[in-house]
Amino acid sequence: MYQERAEAEVQGELFKRRRGEIPDAERVLTLQEKLYQKAKQERGYKFYVLYDKMFIPYMLREAWQQVKSNDGSPGVDKVSISDVEQYGVRAYLTELGEELRKQTYQPGAVKRVMIDKENGGERPLGIPTVKDRIAQTVCKMILEPIFEADFADSSYGFRPGRSAKDAMIAIKENLKQGKTEVYDADLSKYFDTIPHDKLQIVLKQRVTDPRILKLINKWLKAPIYEDGQFKSGKGGTGTPQGGVISPLLANVYLHLIDRIVNSASSLFGKLGIEIVRYADDFVLMGRTVPTETVEKLKSLLSRMGLSLNETKTRQINARNESFNFLGFTIRYDNDIKGRSNKYWNIMPSQKSEKKIRGKVGDYLKTHGHYKAKDVAAGLNTIVRGWLNYFEIKGVSYPAMSKRRLRLYLSNSLYRYYNRKSQRKCRLYGQKALEVLVSKYGLIDPSKFAISLVH
Predict the structure, then answer these.
(1) pLDDT of residue 440
(2) Band of the pLDDT at 3, cuts 50, 70, 90?
(3) How large is the average pLDDT for residues 317-345?
(4) Within 10 A of 106 (CB to CB), how many other CB atoms are there?
(5) Mapping DSSP to helix (H, G, I), strand (E, B) and coil, where does residue 279 land?
(6) Partners of 111 in the beta sheet?
(7) Angle at 13 between CA 7 and CA 14, to 5 degrees
(8) Using CB atoms within 10 A as the burial measure, which of 70, 84, 138, 145 is most buried?
(9) Cβ neighbours of residue 393 under 8 Å, at least 6 residues apart?
(10) Which of 9, 243, 5 is nearest to 111 (CA)?
(11) Given this model, what pLDDT does residue 426 score?
(12) Are 28 and 58 in contact (CB under 8 A)?
């Protein structure tokens, strides 16, 4: 991302500088490019002066814009985005900047809520205050380009310019190359178990500014507010899921695994084993993944203070068994005409299909008095994102899933307007899906295709 940015026209850049019209986002990107290039050119360089960038006004303003665009719930102080706007954004950011400059800034407690998982369980989500989200965003903007210079191509999660689609493209390419032995790893409560002391050691390989390291440590050890009680956050492990900087820290720590697996001189490298990682979800893929490599992986994770969830981790030959990754199911199938030719079929998993149906059903249950055009618009925001995620040109084949989603929409909309029949709804008794598609722009999943070629 940083190295691919086009150069601005020189005269135009100078003109904007003279008039002070360079947008904050442009200034931030320029700073990030400098940090990235320095880190890329000098692999062993350690950044010892970074904290002064934490309270630069344009950094704070750009961080605020990012936090605002993400919206999100208030933290334990109950201060919302709109509250900050009513107070005055400029004054709020000035005060935060002074706290950071004087090093009097102290993060608030993290509000913990439990959210449902697809498998029926729950996982904790930590919600920092708006002030802490702004400060963490500034820190992330400073650190991300430094570590991006080191991160491996096999890592795809929570990185600029990378996505789950790229991970699936890599998986399919590995399979086509005959690397069909798959070790599907599931880390046990990764975000909750990252050891703070070992994470600091990894951070110090690139960042030696003690003020930045101290700031990160404060966020890691912030108290937890849950069920009306404050709990100490000084257990020495974990970074809250929901924290702005948490995904970056998670990638920094797991980069150790990427580096070892990708090393040509390692046991993995000698056997041609590839890793495809999206945050804490990863697979090892090779023509063979022998027991000694699995034991090596477990040993590495143990030394890092991490462990595998043995009940969810499994090793398969993808030619014989399907496996799931990032909401996709990967399966070796006969071609659609029933011939003996086989192909790698990548499609939405059953859980993913169930999840989108649940979202559609919940929307219709809670929007019973909406006009037809508003129903179509609301459903489109749900359906479009799901379809865009699973549609990867030349890689995934979600046609059957799209037809099933269309059928579910048709039946759900029939029931939806049937419930409204006593109010003499115009769509009662009609083919509501077809009407909403033709007159109000509802997306027909079976005819949906992304316009951009990936």
Answers:
(1) 94
(2) low
(3) 89
(4) 9
(5) coil
(6) 127, 225
(7) 140
(8) 138
(9) 450, 453, 454
(10) 243
(11) 66
(12) yes
How many residues belong to the chain?
454
Q: Is the pLDDT of residue 40 over 70?
A: yes
Beta sheet of 328-334, edge-to-edge order: 323-325, 328-334, 342-348
Phi, psi (5° rounding) for residue 384? -60, -45
More confident residue, 272 or 240: 272
pLDDT per position as a tens digit, 186-217? 999 999 999 999 999 999 999 999 999 999 99
pLDDT band at 428 (very low <50, low <70, confident <90, very high): low
Six token digits for residue 240:
């809250």
First-to-last alpha carbon distance for the chain, in angstroms, is: 16
Q: Which amino acid is at 37?
A: Q
Please write the tens of the pLDDT for every residue from 402-417. 999 999 999 999 888 8
Give the whole-angstrom CA distance, residue 197 versus residue 201: 7
| Secondary structure class of 111 (helix, strand, coil) | strand
Q: Which two tokens stand for residue 59?
A: 């950094």
Stretch (H or E) spanning 384? helix 372-390
Distance between CA 249 and CA 331 in Å, rounded? 33
Q: Which pLDDT does position 163 carry in this prediction? A: 96
Neighbours of 65 (CB within 10 A): 16
State pLDDT tens for residues 168-181: 999 999 999 999 99
Q: In whole angstroms, give the CA distance from residue 81 to residue 64.
A: 9
Q: Name the 3-class secondary structure at 405.
A: helix
Beta strands at 224-226 and 110-116: parallel, antiparallel or unpaired: parallel
**How many C-beta neighbours within 10 Å does residue 378 have?**
17
> 249: which residues sit within 8 A by CB, 6+ positions away?
194, 199, 216, 239
Residue 285, H or E segment? strand 281-286
What pLDDT does residue 8 have? Answer: 40
**How buried is residue 163: exposed, middle or buried, by Cβ count under 10 Å (0-12/13-18/19+)?**
middle
Whole-number Å distance between alpha carbons of 44 and 30: 22
> Which residues lie closer than 8 Å to 49 by C-beta, 6 or more apart?
209
String of DSSP letters for 57-85? HHHHHHHHHHHHHH-----TT---HHHHH
Sheet bearing 281-286, strands edge to edge: 274-278, 281-286, 181-186, 314-317
Question: How does pLDDT run across 86-127, given as a tens digit for each residue?
Answer: 999 999 999 999 999 999 999 999 999 888 766 556 778 899
pLDDT of the residue at 349: 97
C-alpha pair distances (Å), 69 with each of 82, 128, 134, 359, 413: 12, 16, 12, 22, 32
